[in-house]
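Hey, can you fold this one?
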Amino acid sequence: MFNDIRLAFRTLRNALGFAAAAIATLALGIGANTAIISVLNATLLQPLPYAEPSRLVFLQESSQGYPIPVAGGTYFDWSAQTKSYQSMFAAEAWSGILAGPEKSEQIPAIRATAGLFETIGAKPALGRTFAQDEDQPGKDHVIVLSHRLWQTSFGADHGIVGRKVTLIAEPYVIIGVMPAGFEFPTFWAADTRPWAPLSLAARRNDRNGRSLRVFARLKLGIAPAAAQTELAVVAARLARAFPSNNEKIGAVLQPLQDRSVSGFRTMLLVLMGAVAFLLLIACSNVANLLLSRSAARSREIAVRIAIGAGRARLARMLLAESGVLGMPSPASCGT
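Sure. Predicted structure:
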């Protein structure tokens, strides 16, 4: 077989045009598939970078079958009347002017109740995250920075914890910095840089201002379907208790992994099908090239048969040539 491989290299060296066309065709098909599979692996197949991500869920109210944000009063009722969740927190998008040491900038942010980092199981690289009482009025002027914001606006200062900054014209104390690569959430309020506590004390009985996104961690052994059933029961109870605000308002639960990729899952799968078809076309084209080349080599093959080469020997020789063509090319390795 080693001799067949050496012969294949010599033969293909004498047919550089054919070899270049076949290798380029295979490299295009394999390279495109490798790129798309890498994207699929990073987005659809890899678990979310949080502790036990399979237990994390995303909760919303629903109206006429469509998910909608959650009212403050509903969040408190869900938290008090459900038993399927180990912890739960509410969050809302926020933004404002952050006055840094060198410049001021408009930044996207998230405000969330104190259980955010505990629920998703994220630990800071510097300092700490929210204490349990820091989502109460008067104690909520603290922020946790993203690693990116810490680097770009604060010069990666390791003594940043405890420093005061001005955000939306109010003083905040920096209590922590999250690790590089940490993102939350991954599907909403994109490019969040700091996180601040969210005080909901004034919204305990508010059932109209629906601006919250609710996240929770299921208890061990609780399936999402069981948690959804319990949530539906609570939603029906609230609809009876508050018909003017909650009539025909349901509740929707999604595993956080599914919700994080739902916006582009179909697009990626369609793209994967397209590049798989591209690989099929590439293989067909190379097969046609090999058949054409085999027809042109009929005299050579006839001579080999005449001097004693059997079918198995010829098949091994041709397979060696095909194997050499299919070896990883620089283009596919680079991809």
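Residues 53-261 form one domain. Let me know if you want another pass with a different chain boundary.
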